[in-house]
Amino acid sequence: MKAASEPGWSGPGVRAPRAPFTWSRFIWSVVYPNHGDRFLPTLPGLVLVGLSFGIGTAAYNSSSNILFITLSLLLACLILSGVLSWLNLRKLQWRLQLAPPLRVGHDTVIALELWNPKLFLPTYGLWFDLVARPTSATAQKAESTVSASGAEVRAALAQGAETELRASVPLVGRLDPGGTTRIEWVTKPLRRGEWRVELERVGSLFPFGFLRKDLGTDLAVDAIVWPAPVEYQRYALAAPRRLPGGERVARAGSGGDLMALRRYAVGDSHRLIHWKASARTQTLLVRQFAAETAEGYSLWLWTQAEVWVRPEQFELLISLVATMAEDLFRGGRLLSVAIDAAPPQSIRRLHDLELFLDQLAVVTPSPGAAVGRGVGGASKHNVITFGPDGPRGVAAYIGNQKAAAA
Question: Rounded to 10 degrees, what is the CA torsion of 68, 69, 75, 78?
């Protein structure tokens, strides 16, 4: 395994171009270390330092060889602690991995892979400080707070802290030389949008707990958090009209005409497996048929800021649109989607639906959006639009009839 040649790895073991060694640069790095690097004594370490000063003073005043030997042992413990701590982190490499999709309120596994390429020395007693925050929170510019009151500053700091997710994940056991391990952090994103997961620092008290070493990192992974699914009530409506153009369309369905072969996915029926093609390609392939009819719906989302004045109601709207899009896609009845005045997007495969959910994750109320009359030329009886349902609810409409409400 050559982890250093693979992308995404970071840490002390990753080789990077270095400037030529000079004593001035070395002394300056000790006085002013890299951002996030700290090397501080703990409470037992401070007691040991104080005890060393006391024994050293007594040794010089009494000229006792036993006290000098004791002082040498105490100072040797401090030096040995620093050297072993440095060797413990030397050549270690790590990288972050996410398992999409990420959804609001659902468990998300953030994995940190570790690799110890050392030949003889194992790695012990590490912990990793991880943080996940919306990208908008990290992109805010620094502004002066001279004119702000104390309550406003505290409210801004509290709001930023509410959106962040932090955890300190320990390394259980030891990491043998040349070995790899995986550390998982299970968390739940608090809101939709673009998020960034960062490994802020790596800490260690190894070996004696006299010194605490924190190593700052710049390892980060960006991800998109989809809206949370929501429960909604459906209302009985007439069947959707058929669009002109024949009885079969070139999209996935449960008809009798074979449209294509695709890779097997979890949940596919075993009856759809094409055994001859699977044996020929050494990969499980399933048959994908064309839809029987052109019956279906188009979703049309309008995000007028003057209509959606309540932030919590707008979030409910996005969740309802995402949930209905997934339900209609599973039933093979989702034709296209559109947001505001953008051109409609045809939904033919799972990748198209995922792109739409990515757009819903970052959409915001748009000022001055004018409502149009249709989506891609579809009949108004096949277009689902959305509007407020009271002060807090959201309803989906087909024409003038209410189709669903949340």
Answer: -160
> Do residues 40 and 177 both lie within one domain?
yes
Is the distance from CB of 252 to CB of 288 less than 8 angstroms? yes
CATH of the domain at 199: 2.60.40.10
pLDDT tens digits for range 111-164: 999 999 999 889 988 999 999 999 875 444 444 445 555 555 455 445 555 678
CA 200-116-170 angle, to 5 degrees, is: 45
Residue 147 tokens, joined = 């004119």
How far is 309 from 119, CA to CA, in rounded Å? 62
Domain that holds residue 279: 248-292
Q: Are residues 254 and 322 in the same domain?
A: no
Contact yes or no for 111/244 (Cβ under 8 A): no
Residues 214 and 238 in one domain: no
Are both 103 and 43 inside the same structural domain? yes
Beta pairing partners, 396 = 386, 404
Using CA atoms, how far apart are residues 322 and 43, in angstroms rounded to an integer?
A: 53
Return d(Cα 297, Cα 280) in angstroms, integer.
38
Tokens of 238: 């007439």
> Which tens digits make up the pLDDT trace of 324-375?
999 999 888 899 999 988 899 999 888 999 999 999 999 999 886 555 444 4
